[in-house]
Amino acid sequence: ERLARLRRTRDADRARRALDGLESGARGRHNLMALVLEAVEGSASLGEICERLRAVFGVHQPSVTF
Length: 66
Known about the structure:
The protein is mainly alpha-helical and 66 residues long. The chain is 68% helix and 0% strand.
């Protein structure tokens, strides 16, 4: 219920712009901390933020060597 309430009250355009900026920054050589904070302040969820970062960096697959 809390997530549903957040999604109803947030500014969807602000969240989208912040997530777009985060993804764009991740594709460059920017410090991402300010961009992550901007996304959080724009009410983007942790899942949305992680999704954008995974789109750029992928998912870490540790190599197993013996």
